[in-house]
Structures are given as structure tokens and as C-alpha cells.
């Protein structure tokens, strides 16, 4: 066996690091492509509502106008500023959904003394030692080679 306390602390830290990296990547991707396209008509409408804030309009709730007003006064009339708030909300939603999906599993693992760690240790001793990293990457590339071509093509479409 191995010391469970050290693994619990390391695993929790690794999950936090992975979550922060994933959320940062999501935010960066949103911000990276935010200026590639012109404003959509709904974005222009929300931005205009920010110029004339009211308690609410028939089509949008009051918070939309308030956020647009704040963005106009902080960032001015920039596409980056308009798309920053949705990028932040997307990242926050991703965090909340991931937390709600992972939380029951973490609670179960904690209550049962982390059986997944014992399972991984057994796999490492009996099965994973027979695998080669090169075989894994060759299989991964062969399965996704068509998607890589589509992804590369999309970088030329601007």
C-alpha cells in the first residue's frame, strides 16, 4: 500500500491545477477569436441598450443593459470589451458545471477511502507496464488525422 494522505493532497492539488488550466484555456480561446468576426446584430442591440439603460426591455432582462453600460464605460466601444463578458460567463459556467458533475464522484471516493487510487496502482503494476508511449501516440494520430486536416484548414479561413 501507499500513504493515502499524501495522495489525497496531491490529487486535490492536481485537480485544482487542471481546472484552472482548463478554464484559462477556455477564456484565452474566447478572447483569441473574439475579434475575428464582426459584431452580431444581437451584440449591437445589447450594446445599444447599454447606451440607454432601463429597468428592462421586452426582449432582454435588466442585467443585460447594466452589463453593456459597464462595458461601455470601462472598455469604450471595442469589440474586445463587448465579448469579454460572455467569455467570462462561459468560463464561470464551465467551472460550475464541471464542479457539479465531479462533486458527487469526489464525495463518493472520499467516503470510500479513494478506491480509484488503488485501482490505478494495480493497473500500473499489471497492465500499463506493457504499453509503449509511441504506440499510444500513433493510435491517437491515426484516429484523429482527418480532424487535424479540418482544424488546419480552419486557420486559413479568415
Structural description of this entry:
The structure is a single chain. It is built from six helices and no strands. The protein is an all-alpha fold. α1 packs antiparallel against α4 and α2 packs across α3. The longest helix is centred in the middle third of the chain and has 33 residues. It is flat.
Tags for this model:
158 residues, mainly alpha, 77% helix, flat
List the helices and strands and how they pair.
Blueprint (H helix, E strand, L loop, with lengths): L3 H30 L7 H11 L10 H14 L3 H33 L3 H12 L6 H22 L4
Helix pairs in contact: 1-4, 2-3, 3-4
In short:
The protein is mainly alpha-helical and 158 residues long. Helix content is 77%, strand content 0%.
Amino acid at each position: 500500500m501507499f500513504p493515502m494522505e499524501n495522495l489525497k493532497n496531491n490529487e486535490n492539488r492536481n485537480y485544482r491545477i487542471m481546472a484552472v488550466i482548463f478554464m484559462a484555456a477556455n477564456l484565452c480561446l474566447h478572447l483569441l477569436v473574439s475579434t475575428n468576426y464582426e459584431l452580431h446584430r444581437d451584440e449591437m442591440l445589447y450594446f445599444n441598450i447599454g447606451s440607454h439603460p432601463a429597468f428592462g426591455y421586452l426582449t432582454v432582462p435588466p442585467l443585460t443593459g447594466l452589463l453593456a453600460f459597464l462595458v461601455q464605460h470601462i472598455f469604450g466601444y471595442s469589440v474586445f470589451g463587448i465579448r469579454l463578458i460572455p467569455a467570462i460567463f462561459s468560463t464561470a459556467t464551465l467551472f460550475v458545471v464541471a464542479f457539479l458533475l465531479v462533486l458527487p464522484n469526489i464525495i463518493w471516493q472520499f467516503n470510500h477511502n479513494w478506491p480509484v487510487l488503488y485501482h490505478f496502482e494495480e493497473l500500473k503494476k499489471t497492465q500499463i507496464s506493457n504499453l509503449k508511449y509511441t504506440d499510444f501516440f500513433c493510435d491517437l494520430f491515426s484516429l484523429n488525422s482527418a480532424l487535424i486536416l479540418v482544424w488546419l484548414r480552419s486557420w486559413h479561413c479568415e
